[in-house]
Amino acid sequence: MSSEKSVEATQLTRKFGDFIAVDQISFDIPKGEIFGLLGPNGAGKTTTIRMLCGILAPSSGAASVLGFDVSKQAEEVKQRIGYMSQKFSLYNDLSVSENLNFYANLYGIPREKVKPRIAELIEIAGLQGHEKQLTGNLSGAWRQRLALACAIVHEPPMIFLDEPTAGVDPVSRREFWEMIYTMAGRGVSVLATTHYMDEAEFCNVIGMMYRSRLIALNDPDSLKDEMSGILFEVDCHEPGRAEKILRYLPTVQDVVAHGVILHVLMTDENGKVFLEKILTDNEIVIDRIEPVLPTLEDVFVSLVDQENRLHVRTEID
Fold it and tell me: DSSP 3-state helix, strand, coil percentages of the chain (rounded to 5)?
């Protein structure tokens, strides 16, 4: 992987009055890497993207995109990146081809290159047969593909995707990410925000955001390996009552319900024996207890729980 950095952010901060939307976050994105910002709504992901795209000025800290300072050279940044927002900036009363033609002209693509570039994008996005269809009549998945094609019509070396697959079915989401992988393989750098855990697995590096801060930064496998404690999957009768019983025990770090299955994070490697005894003593029938490898969701929930406990202690102090 190239050592050349497409994005560098240092202590990047954005305030709106007294509200801190993004709080001193630092990370970088090497050329050709897919970087994911993972977190719930309101965590600061979109504000981060808007600063890096030169749309919103940072309150403090610094960031550069493709070597350009986002505070001092915002226009240079905007000309060289692709940006796909949550709402897909498409014109519903234009056809697929007309939207692509509009964006090609907007980005100043030479006239003789517009037609072949549009044909190439239609093939890349799998939009063959939809060229003359009105954008307003497209399904969410097809609009998503078109929005990405419009964002990369000028062949930018860096693209920003803000919740690009919100409201799209899982199969279409996977197909979309296959397109992203193809672009990254050609040296395009990608920053994508998401709250889908399965999508985060597609990223080379993940930055987990919560309460405006970056609470973890690493590749998916390392994040799982770094998770403290031992995770047990508990399949039992009355999981709701079991969760209430287990949550406040000293050797239990966290309990999360996955449907009717409980994921119990323990400090003790002999946790299985302990769990069996506690649940049996409370007359809860056990079907299965076994150690499992953590998922990204387990990691994120554990980190959020730690942050919340720290926040409560800080308020008390």
Answer: 40, 30, 30
Residue type, 28: D
CATH 3.40.50.300, the chain: domain bounds:
5-218
Q: What are phi and psi for residue 316, nearest 5 degrees?
A: -65, -45
The C-alpha atoms of residue 260 and residue 239 are separated, in whole angstroms, by 6
DSSP labels, 157-193:
SEEEEESTTTT--HHHHHHHHHHHHHHHHTT-EEEEE
Beta-carbon count within 10 A of 106 CB: 11
* DSSP-based three-state secondary structure for 310: helix
If you average pLDDT over every residue of the chain, what do you get? 91
Residues 108-129: pLDDT tens digits?
A: 999 999 999 999 999 988 899 9
- The torsion angles phi and psi of 20, rounded to 5 degrees, stand at -95, 105
| Rounded to 5°, angle at Cα 99 from 135 and 56 | 105
Task: CATH 3.30.70.100 in the chain: give the residue spans.
Answer: 225-316
* Burial track 4-17 (b if 16+ CB lie within 10 A, e otherwise): ebbbebeebbbeee
Compute the distance between CA of residue 303 and CA of residue 117 in angstroms, rounded to an integer.
45
Neighbours of 110 (CB within 10 A): 8
pLDDT tens string 163-200: 888 777 888 888 888 889 888 998 999 999 988 888 88
Tell the CATH superfamily of the 5-218 domain. P-loop containing nucleotide triphosphate hydrolases (3.40.50.300)
Instruction: Assign a CATH topology to domain 225-316.
Output: Alpha-Beta Plaits (3.30.70)
